[in-house]
Amino acid sequence: MVLTLDIHHIEYIADGGGDSQDNLLALCPNCHSLHHKGHIPRESLRAWKVLLLALNEGFDRRSVDTLLALDVLGGVMVWGDGLLACASLLASGLVEVDEKGELVETEGFFSGSYKEHRVAKYWVELSAKGHAFVEAWKRGDQDAAVRASEVVVKMRPNKGMEPMR
């Protein structure tokens, strides 16, 4: 079976849209027809384009879901394993991490072989770069999402990553 795709202009040519890559989207003929009949709104097509961009630019679904959740929650407290789950977002500067102290776990308190384990906890929240990416993602603005993901970052002692100014 041959797979055919239609090239759709997100902003119609009649409305001033052009043939630039950021205005074009490959759609199956069924979805293309449904859009032009008014069943699929333009905002959904933009969101789909940004999702395709994310998939092609290396933003996995879990990372995008984590960024969207952090946007809603404002931040979350995690232990070491949660911090490692956010490692790619931290390395890319999309989240910031602040160490919030340690939890002391004791082992063998009643048996006489007392042993302490110190477990650090961390506050994870969107960085300025992360906020810019999420806002662009929610608007379906491909160019802004790419620009936000390309911001050069630098290390800030004890504060994680921050956009370079």
Largest sheet properties: 3 strands, antiparallel
Overall pLDDT confidence:
80
The shape, in one word, is: elongated
The helix/strand order is EEHHHEHHEEHHEE
Q: Find the count of extended strands (DSSP E, 2+ residues).
A: 7
> Which consecutive residue ranges, at least 5 long each, have pLDDT under 50?
151-165
User: Strand order within the widest sheet?
Assistant: 3-5-4
Proportion of beta-strand residues: 25-35%
The total count of helices amounts to: 7
Helix content: 40-55%
Distance between the termini: 52 Å
Indicate the structural class.
alpha+beta
Compute the gyration radius: what is it?
A: 22 Å
Task: Write a concise keyword list for the protein shown above.
alpha+beta; single chain; 7 strands; disordered C terminus; 3-stranded antiparallel beta sheet
What does this structure look like?
- This protein is of the alpha+beta class and 165 residues long.
- The chain has a domain of 105 residues.
- The protein contains seven helices and seven strands, in the order ββαααβααββααββ.
- The strands form three sheets. Strands 3-5-4 form a three-stranded antiparallel sheet.
- Helix 6 packs antiparallel against helix 7.
- The radius of gyration is 22 Å and the shape is elongated.
- The C terminus is likely disordered.
